[in-house]
Structure formats: structure tokens, C-alpha cells
Design brief:
Distance between the termini: 22 Å
Structural class: alpha/beta
Strand content: 5-15%
Strand order of the largest sheet: 7-6-8-9
CATH class of one domain: Mainly Alpha
Radius of gyration: 22 Å
Largest sheet: 4 strands, parallel
Number of helices: 9
Order of helices and strands: EEEHHHHHEEHEHEHEHE
Length: about 280
């Protein structure tokens, strides 16, 4: 138990996993909120649990001593429930499966699972759902007995794919709007604390959004570090050269890991990250 009994770290026994799970006891909720830390190390899982608890309980500042337990960053405006997260994953998988069969009806379940990064059992389950709901028709007409069956999108399946594409675009737009708003708030914090320069750690679309947000807030002196095997050396060099600079996480692939490394090298008081990236 950590954080005044608000969090319990455990490992599942019904489905063995090397990752630590956390059960968060949130006032006003009948059941604990359960999340996976996605890290096997207990110390890292504890740090992740403290950050996540702060986002789930933004109004209870006394739960965690942020100056000692975690670097300062903007508290989350909301915490998505497990049910909503699961629904988003299911829609995302359904969209990618329909798109895959639209490109190649003869795609095997093994190859589909490999492309999507899921197990064959999960792929089989979702393909079965698509067939049962009439989104995909299974053709058993084979040129030879060694050929695989083809999965052909029906008219209902194409209409559903179009709806899922619209949902995907809207979700991404909502995510990037929220991300930009949080980077603007981080910029205000940097200005209020007297930081004259900002180092963005991570490249890509997220970094581009952060640069736009910082430019709109009038913060100059923005530099960028790409996350690669040599990134630690460059971060250490920048931490020594930029004494009056802040470090902002803009890496999308592994923001939690980048966040932890920055705290160790540059110090917690100089590291900032939007909650929408941390603990997702």
C-alpha cells in the first residue's frame, strides 16, 4: 500500500503477467479503479502509481507531497474510465480489421494478428464478431483445398468502416486539441517559474503541437532533442548548459520512460509533461 492507503500494487494470479497492477481507491467510487503500470520494476510502478493517483484525484492535493514524490505538472482535467478506454480499443481494432480485409480479403488470421500486434486468439475473436454482425462475409470458394477463405466486406461493413473512420478522426482531433491546451498551460507554468528556455524531448507530431503552443504563448528559445540511444548524453549536456531551462516531454512512444529519465538527470523541478501523455 502506498499514498496513505489509496493505492494497492499487485500482480495478477489468474492471468500471470510480469507487469504490476494498481487498484486506486477513489472517494465517491464504489469499486477501485484498476490499471496496469506496464512496468515490471516495483520502484517504477510505485512512481507511476503516485502520478496516476494525482491525476485521478486532482482536487486532493494532500494525498501526495508533490515536491518530494513527483515533479510538478498540470493536474489532469479528467481521468478516462476503464470502460471508455476498452470501448476505444475495441473500435480501433474493428476499424483496423475492416481496413485490412478491405485491402486484402485473403489475409490470414496469423498475418492480421502480426500486422495489428495482437494474438491470434484476439484476432479470431474480433473477426468472429465482424462475421456475426454482418460486417464481413466469409467466402469458402477456394481455388484449391490448401487456399485460405476470403473475408469480404459487406455493404454494412463498408458503412461501419466509414463511421469508424469518422470517429477515429474526431477522436484524434479531440486528443490534439486537449494536448495543445495542456502544453499552453505548461508554458504558463514555465513562464511563471522564470524559465527562459525550453527543451522539447521527443520529435514528431506531438513536438510540432508543443512548438506551436509555446510560440503562441510568446516563449522563445525552444530547442528539441530526439529520443534515440544517444539521447541521454544530449539530455545531460543540455541539463548542464541550460541552467535556466525547462524540459518538456514531447515523446509519444514512451513518455513515461522519458519523463523518469529526465527527472533523474535534470531534476524534478525542471521537468514537465502533459497528463494526457503520462500514464496513458
Amino acid at each position: 500500500m502506498i499514498c496513505e492507503g489509496r493505492v494497492r500494487l499487485f500482480k495478477r494470479v489468474d492471468r500471470p503477467s510480469r507487469y504490476w497492477q494498481a487498484a486506486f481507491n477513489i472517494p465517491g467510487r464504489k469499486r477501485p479503479v484498476v490499471k496496469s503500470s506496464r512496468v515490471p520494476d516495483l520502484a517504477q510502478a510505485t512512481a507511476w502509481a503516485e502520478r496516476t493517483l494525482a491525476m485521478l484525484m486532482p482536487a486532493r492535493k494532500a494525498v501526495i507531497d508533490r515536491s518530494a514524490a513527483m515533479p510538478a505538472f498540470i493536474a489532469a482535467d479528467f481521468a478516462p474510465t476503464i470502460r471508455n478506454a476498452k470501448r476505444s480499443v475495441e473500435r480501433e481494432l474493428a476499424l483496423r480489421i475492416l481496413e485490412a480485409f478491405d485491402r486484402d480479403p485473403a489475409l490470414s488470421q496469423r498475418e492480421l494478428a502480426r500486422q495489428l500486434g495482437i494474438s491470434i486468439g484476439v484476432a479470431n475473436h474480433y473477426i468472429g464478431n465482424c462475421v456475426r454482425h454482418g460486417l464481413v462475409g466469409k467466402s469458402n470458394a477456394r481455388p484449391s483445398r490448401h487456399s485460405r477463405p476470403a473475408y469480404i466486406l459487406t455493404e454494412k461493413g463498408r458503412a461501419q468502416k466509414d463511421l469508424l473512420v469518422s470517429w477515429h478522426v474526431e477522436r484524434n482531433l479531440t486528443f490534439f486539441r486537449e494536448l495543445r491546451d495542456q502544453y499552453e498551460r505548461l508554458c504558463r507554468v514555465c513562464i511563471d517559474r522564470g524559465f527562459r528556455r525550453v527543451v522539447l524531448v521527443g520529435t514528431g507530431d506531438v513536438a510540432a503541437i508543443a512548438r506551436l503552443a509555446l510560440a503562441d504563448m510568446g516563449l522563445s528559445g525552444v530547442s528539441m532533442i530526439e529520443v534515440d540511444p544517444q539521447a541521454i548524453d544530449r539530455i545531460a549536456e543540455a541539463a548542464g548548459a541550460e541552467r535556466d531551462g525547462a524540459f518538456v516531454v514531447t515523446d509519444f512512444a514512451a513518455p513515461d520512460r522519458v519523463f523518469a529519465v529526465l527527472c533523474q538527470i535534470a531534476g524534478a523541478g525542471r521537468v514537465f509533461a502533459p497528463p494526457v501523455l503520462i500514464g496513458r
